[in-house]
Structures are given as C-alpha cells and as structure tokens.
Amino acid sequence: MSKLGKISKGEKCSVKGCAKEAVRSLPIDDVTAAGIEVHGTRRVYLCRDHYKQYKKSTKKEQMVDKWRYGGRIKKFDSPVNTYVKTGT
Ligand SMILES: [Zn+2]
Questions:
Q1: What angle do CA 68, 36, 58 make, to 5 degrees?
Q2: Given this model, what pLDDT does residue 36 score?
Q3: What's the gap in Å between 6 CA and the centre of ligand 1?
Q4: How many whole angstroms from 4 Cα to the centroid of ligand 1?
Q5: CA 43 from centroid of its chain's CA atoms
Q6: How many CB atoms lie within 10 A of CB 43?
Q7: Residue 27 has pLDDT above 60, yes or no
Q8: 87 or 12: which leads in pLDDT
Q9: Dihedral sign of CA atoms 78, 79, 84, 87 in order
Q10: Residue 84 CA, ligand 1 centroid: distance in Å
Q11: With 50 as the cut, is the pLDDT of residue 87 above it?
Q12: Per-residue pLDDT averaged across 23-28, rounded?
C-alpha cells in the first residue's frame, strides 16, 4: 500500500533553517539547481512549501530555456564560432 513519491513520516525538510515535515524526497542536484539551499548528500527532503518553490523554479528555468533557444541563441552562435576559428 505504498505510494510512489511519498516518503516515510517523520522526515524533516532538508532546507536550511526549515524544520517542517517533508512531503517529498528528491535528488539533491535537482533541488540545488532550482536555487534552493539544502543540506544532505544524495537525496534531500522537502516540505510542502519548499516543494512548491522547487516546482516553480524548475518551471521558470524551462521557460527561460525555451525563450533563449527560441530567439537569441542563434544570433550569439555564429560570432562566437568565428572568434574561435580566427583565434587558432
Ligand atoms: Zn521546508
């Protein structure tokens, strides 16, 4: 009767300065990449609030990526390549 994504009761949020009960466990890399400071080794625990914050940050990041690839990246690409070629 176990549900995926749920964690055992009694775990506390791994975010610095937060002592709420955790609702999710995630790879620490994903959480730090979202700009959240946590302590732990491989997996960290997030309370509901910080999990929300984590989801928001990752969503924002994806949108920024899309926006970048949609427009600007191409313009920056060619001059950089030219510089690399002339440099050698
Ligand atoms: Zn928390």
A1: 35
A2: 94
A3: 16
A4: 20
A5: 13
A6: 13
A7: yes
A8: 12
A9: positive
A10: 45
A11: no
A12: 94
